[in-house]
Amino acid sequence: MMFARIIKIILPLVIGVAMGLIYGWRLDPIVYVEVTPEILRADYQADYVLTVAEAFSTELDADTAAKRLALLGDNSPAQISLDALEYARSQAFNPDEIGLLEKLSTSMQTYTPITGENIP
Amino acid sequence: MRSRTRFPWEFILALLIGLGLGLTYAWFITPVEYVNAQPSQLRSDFKDEYRGVIAAAYAANRNLDRARARLSLLADPDPVQALSAQAQQMLAAGISFNQVSQVAQLAADIQSGAMSPTIISTSQIVEETVPTSQTEVQGTTLPTFGESTSTQSSGSVIDAVTITPRPTTTPTFTPGPAFALVAQEPKCEPNKSRGLLQITVMDARKRQVPGVEIIVTWNGGEDRFFTGFKPEMGNGYADFQMTVSTAYNVRVVEGGTQVPNVTAPPCSNPNGSAYTGDLLLTFQQP
Q: Closest Cα partner for B197 from B253, B279, B266, B261?
């Protein structure tokens, strides 16, 4: 009698939890409306880096380019530009675009941030 | 003996508690981890930064179609207004005029549709290249600029070809001729006019131009401001509050001639009472 009573409670409880999970994860998951760039899809991230590279091609301002790349997360600007370059190669971007990314990536490899310590 | 069917309160209560626990876990404790976001979902400050980079890239390659396609990813209802408003905010924040002018220039060029040859129509670029579904898996190709791309979605591979407008085909931008005063109209509107100097700056196609610096000088003073601070009035609009009986000299900085002795026009109501009207100056490139 006691066992049956427990089953009567446990069973609907488990069913309820399962329904809640299905609803909360699949049917109506949390919708993020103000996201950060680091979770942009890879192709959008690569295009953002390409945009930075296009600007860098005439500005030749490594500091500004590094700040713009820093928007994409905690990785170093060198790593971010390298990732974008690899993505561009894997997706057969055109040679001009790859050239711009290479130029940016090369610059970022040798880039040293300007900090208070660097200033005499 | 009578058989009695009891309402299953215990079952319903346990089900509801379970549902609550499940939702709490799914929404608050371990919510869906979000990846593969689109630029349109970015926080507004990141969108501003993105627009600034697009404008800087446009300043470098003068490729208006590409800039348009990129801006469309941000899904601004009115990209020109968004750029103009951002230029104003940047000015107010003291950001370098070079960066501000890049944003303002992009707004002006998008509005006028000039500075870039039409390789393919903008609508074609957007239609072909901007992904619309959030459910596309990671690993899809560039949304806008791949040449021949393969998009993997739900296990199937779809071949798609997008035409890329090349930066190298875009002619070099040359600034237009100086702005000249083409109209000077007093505006007398009772209960609305208040001695405002209203300035509209247009290009040769009569499209309003944001980000143009105006200098107003008077005896013992000077003020500098830019068009586009009030996009609701037009992207090439700016205004300045005049003082009655003070004469001002107005000049558009980018090579414009000086307009001397500008004063707030006197107006009068039908009942004979006097008030100060507004003055509208229109500058245009020939």
A: B279
Residue numbers of the domain that contains A4: 1-31
Report the domain count for chain A.
Answer: 2
**Interchain contact B141–A (C-beta under 8 A):** yes
Provide the pLDDT for residue B243.
Answer: 87
* All domains of chain B in start order, with CATH: 38-172 (no CATH), 180-284 (2.60.40.10)
A120 part of a folded domain: no
* Contact (Cβ atoms closer than 8 angstroms) between residue B194 and residue B181: no
Cross-chain residue pair B15–A13, CB shorter than 8 Å: yes
Contacts of A55 in chain B (CB under 8 A): 53, 56-57, 59-60
- pLDDT band, residue B132 (cuts 50/70/90): very low
Are the beta carbons of A39 and B35 separated by less than 8 Å? Answer: yes
Give A55-75 pLDDT, tens digit per residue: 999 999 999 999 999 999 889
> Residue B232: CB partners within 8 Å, gap ≥ 6?
none
Q: Can you name the residues that pair with B183 across neighbouring β-strands?
A: B282
Nearest Cα residue in chain A from B74:
A44
pLDDT at A114: 65
- This complex has an ipTM of 0.79
